[in-house]
Write a structure and sequence with these properties.
Layout (H helix, E strand, L loop, with lengths): L9 H10 L1 H23 L10 H19 L2 H15 L6 H9 L4 H34 L5 H25 L7 H27 L17 H8 L1 E4 L5 E5 L1 H24 L14 H25 L4 H28 L7 H23 L14 E7 L3 E4 L2 H16 L1 H5 L8 E10 L4 E9 L2 H4 L5 H9 L2 H9 L6 E11 L5 E5 L2 H17 L3 H6 L3 H7 L5 E7 L6 H6 L11 E6 L6 H9 L12 H16 L1
Antiparallel strand pairs: 1-2, 3-4, 3-5, 5-6, 7-8, 7-9, 9-10
Amino acid sequence: MKSKTSCFNKTIFLKNITHYWPIWVMFTLWNLFILPFMIFNESQRYKYITDLTQQEIAQSRSSDILSIVGVYMNPAALFFFAVIVVMAVFSYLYHARSAYALHAFPVTRLELFFTNYFSGLLFLLAPQAAGFLMGILVSAVCGYTSMNYLLLGLLYAWGISFILYSITVFIAMFTGQLLAVPIFALILNLLYVGCKVLAAIIMSQISYGIPMDFHGGKLDALSPLYYLGSHVRLKYDESGAAVGIAGGNIVAIYALVSVLFVVGAYLIYKVRHMETAGSLISIWWICPVFRWGAGFTGGGFLGALFCELLGFSSGWAVFASALVFGVLFGGICFFAAQMFLEKGFRVFHKKRFVECVAFLLVFAGIYTVIELDLFGIERKMPEETEIAKAFVEGYTPVGGSEADLTEQILDLHRQIIDSKKEFENYAPESNDMYYLGVKYVLKNGSVLKRSYKIPWEKEMRNEENSAQKKLIDITTSPDAYWKELFGVKKQQIQATRCEIDLYDEKGVRKDYVFPQEDMEKVFQAFLADLEEGNLKQYLTNRYFYDISQNTAYYNSLKLDVVGEEEIIPVSAEYYSTNILNGTHPKSASANLMFDSNCVNLIRALIDTGVIESEADLITMEKYYELQDKNSVEFEE
């Protein structure tokens, strides 16, 4: 006996195909442009290439195919088409007359949902298959051999299309307005990452030392479009040529989860009331979520923006302004959301006021919890045994894996935290403040970063055991400057080229390049000054612009060096988001600045005949005076 239960209706399917033909035709043309046309266009340039071997041409052609496939499976483009298709095949749900009329026919909701779902999915998958087949044909004609990448690209494109289409269908079931579909789809696809960015902005504004840092994490997968866009990508070799596609496991996992979205979308469709057509939200229990979400995000963003515009420096003033503006705009956005829900302005009644008060209390409570640091985020410091490398950014980043350096940085960090009340509310007349950063790379691969603004008055800089003095001591040691110049690895460094800039009494520059024998002598003299601590005063004065102008020489040594191993700059490790991977060259260039305390270097410059006496060197202040004088004489 034939079952009367069906998941497919041929008439509705054919109606969708014929009624919405512009959509699948447009998408077919897009795919024909991306694969066949771009492959043909790329192939034409090889007619004019004569200096490559056959192997190099084959590698270049393979990279071409992958680059084109990268465009073909781009999640942003596929999301755009998925949204258009969903809006088309389910458009009847957003107009009361068409919704009632279609559901009056002798078809079940099961038939309606899955017929529309599969016809819309076909609008995406069939054009991609057509582009793939034409791409195979054109590739064969144009001499491409890496056509396996086209098949791989098709599978990726199908998977991503299925994922984004299914999620959009699920989202479409929650609204009764057609134009709300793309807006809600975009919001919910980026919701987690957006909330994380907003939380980072608020935390960095209110909390002490928390930087505005929102690097990726595993939970970013809760924002599918963002996660697919950042993780499904081409793989490149050291030469920059594309060699494969990454993210296949991510697409597979998302595809499995998307089946649940399809089931969920059907279950919502099954109980959806047709009278909700035209309403912003079609499921009643989503309305409070929408109001509170609009209040939190709108209040948080606008509150942070207006607080930043006021430019308060005191910690309590920043917190108070952020709280007041956050609550104010949070309430406004709460009722604005309700106006969209009710499609009118009569939203100010007792029940909604009570709910808004509850929302604002929660909102203010979150801000208060952040300010009071009830979860200990501001005070969080890793144990020394957990740290692989520690860094502090003063004038330049300084750090490494040495135990004594790690202990010094921890001690400095601890003192800054203990001085929160003093530093956060410090308001000197001169407003002389200094920004520094602290970073720990932990042995488990995670990273902890903090950023602080501390007072920088002269008496504090010279006070023993002050945070300011500890920062200067850490960043002006011989080891710290050696790493700044020659990388984090302690190794033998050999100079390969050295020159110095000299200036006559009119400030005219002349560069002197050292011969090999003199270069080594000068380089060793500089290292001797570094080892003896003769550069400490220069390094300390870098923190004080007015002093460094009078003491540091404008003349500098430009030095090219080569090491036994790769030279990794400290700044590269500090500014990386995790443990640094990859390769670095064994060569580097350094600009060696010095002052009158560097007696070994100055003596070497005199002995090699570069200068007759120290009087031939000029300070920064003297150089700028000569430039100003020459400028005036030139104008006259």
